[in-house]
Design a protein that fits this description.
The chain is an alpha+beta fold. The protein is 26% helix and 28% strand. The structure holds tetrahydrodeoxyuridine.
């Protein structure tokens, strides 16, 4: 269900510097699907990841909870979200939410959000009881 939209949006990635196109698709708890791709910049740190784009699209559409997320790239092994994206995903997904990492060759690795980011920083860490 998320593989095709992520595959399609990946082709629209703007990645002239790394030449590494990434697509991400989120199914929100509403059932709506939101997609994003990486958007690089000549000032390299200003580039954004596919996951960040999909999350921005989800929020812009009025959804705030991730039910499932899938990421795809032309990588030798299923593409792992970067550390920052793991924290971004954790902001909107419960620990048991399914995360599917894919290659364009058809390999897949299924994980949970908790698998991706053990020891996640949460709002609870800012409350001193
Ligand atoms: N990238 C993503 O968009 N998501 C990931 O999960 C891994 C990395 C992008 C960032 C950059 O545009 C390119 O891949 C190479 O790091």
């Amino acid at each position: 269900m998320l593989l095709q939209p992520a595959t399609d949006v990946r082709l629209r990635a703007y990645a002239p510097y790394s030449r590494f196109k990434v697509g991400a698709a989120i199914r929100a708890t509403s059932g709506a699907v939101h997609v994003g791709c990486n958007v690089e910049n000549v000032a390299y740190p200003e580039g954004t990841c596919a996951e960040a784009g999909a999350i921005a699209a989800m929020i812009a559409a009025g959804d705030t909870a991730i039910a499932e997320i899938l990421v795809i790239a032309d990588s030798p092994a299923p593409v792992p979200p970067c550390g920052g994206c793991r924290q971004k995903i954790a902001e909107f997904a419960a620990p048991d939410v399914k995360v599917t990492l894919c290659t364009t060759d058809g390999a897949q690795k299924v994980m949970s959000v908790a698998d991706l980011l053990p020891g996640v920083f949460t709002a609870a860490h800012m409350a001193k009881a």
